[in-house]
Amino acid sequence: HRKYVAFQPVAKKDRRWPDQVIQQAPVWCAVDLRDGNQALVKPMSVAQKQRMFDLLVKLGFKEIEIGFPAASQPDFDFCRKLIDENRIPEDVKIQVLTQARPELIERTYEALRGARQAIVHVYNSTSTVQREQVFGLGRDGIRDIAVRGAALVKELASQHPETDWTFQYSPESFTGTELDFAAEVIDAVNEVWRPDQGQPVIINLPATVEMSTPNVFADQIEWICDNVRYREHITISLHTHNDRGCAVAAAELGVMAGADRIEGTLMGNGERTGNMDLVTMAMNLYSQGIDPKLDLSGMAEITEVVEACTEISTHPRHPYAGELVFTAFSGSHQDAIRKCLARRNEGDAWNVAYLPIDPFDVGRRYEEVVRINSQSGKGGVAYVLERDYDITLPRWLQIEFSKVVQGEAEQNGGEIDSHTIHRLFEEHYLKV
Ligand code: KIV
Ligand code: ZN
């Protein structure tokens, strides 16, 4: 295993994040239409993009990255369509990505002409591997690309004062960049933009590739928060990818470590293993009593639109959104859920075994929770008869009848629906 080297935690004695809980929701930025779209086998059509944009607005996102217009004509056309057809609500900022290259920055401003407000997101890659093996440049060369890009972003914005501009810079491949160099580039960009003089600035720190455990990522975020100039005037944003399967965990620890804003996508679509899943992170906050300021109560609609736009189906075990995530087949789980629900009073704190949140809060019903197969016990079968047919069985009959249902389930090998349970009950006990 010498082929791979572990990332070390950043030495720091006065840590901020390990004993924190998140106090409030970060600012969200949805990048479904850019990072999500660029990773699809078949990029979204205009109709699909519009549907996704409308969903994101409906859910409450106020910052939405809509594409990379200088690199893609469909992205350029979609940006123009949103602006020309006046489809952007007043309280929503569109964000567009551009590399720090003059011709691309110029084209980006063409795409944004006439926008009421916009975030210009400029990036260049800063990691050792990219510097040495992709660009063949030293630290100075890479820093100069960022500074020249920042200067042009500022100059072109000044030519369009009708738009309310926010500038965003990403040191792409931040997680592979030495921290002192990342801070040097960020400082150099901010010396051009001068957030202390009123220019809104977002510094976005991407785990372009997730390379370390989430605690090391949080160390890096904390270090940057403590070591860049103008910290109190800038928004620190995170953009995590899921290569190690920890994008949400990294984002959560990153917020504890000091970040203000998170970029991600619905259901985690995005490059390779995807971006940070906004649904999971927002619902994690919700389940800890923090208002995520997003409306995820219509999860069925969210998954339907995301599936229609990405042409990727939702995994049945996807946190909070999958078909099976509130379902119990096993007898002991069914029994415990049934008892907790029966004892629950309106207004009680949620405290139901095996159900981390109330399924109702994402538009699901208690009734779906209990489903029957050969793993299920008497409690579940009795619950289904009571729920769907108003038939209450005495305990001795629950025991007897559950064996009948179990036998049927073993034979059929799958799920037994409530109609079949009722038929079996009729056949065994009601027919003469
Ligand atoms: O993953 C990444 O680094 C990106 C940047 C362009 C922000 O998508
Ligand atoms: Zn990305």
Question: Helix and strand layout, with pairings?
Answer:
Blueprint: E1 27-30, H1 32-38, H2 46-59, E2 63-67, H3 73-84, E3 93-99, H4 102-112, E4 117-125, H5 128-135, H6 139-158, E5 164-172, H7 179-193, E6 201-207, H8 214-227, E7 234-240, H9 247-256, E8 261-264, H10 278-286, H11 299-310, H12 331-343, H13 378-389, H14 395-412, H15 418-430
Parallel strand pairs: 1-8, 2-3, 3-4, 4-5, 5-6, 6-7, 7-8
Helix pairs in contact: 2-11, 4-6, 6-7, 8-9, 12-13, 13-14
The structure holds 3-methyl-2-oxobutanoic acid and zinc ion.
What's the short story on this structure?
With 432 residues, the chain is α/β, with parallel strands linked by helices. It has 15 helices and eight strands. Helices cover 44% and strands 12% of the residues.
State the helicity in percent bands: 40-55%
Overall SS class: alpha/beta
Q: Which hetero ligands occur in this complex?
A: 3-methyl-2-oxobutanoic acid, zinc ion
State the shape.
elongated
Note the quaternary state here. Answer: single chain
List the secondary-structure elements in sequence, H or E: EHHEHEHEHHEHEHEHEHHHHHH
Rounded mean pLDDT is 96
What's the count of strands?
8
Strand content: 5-15%
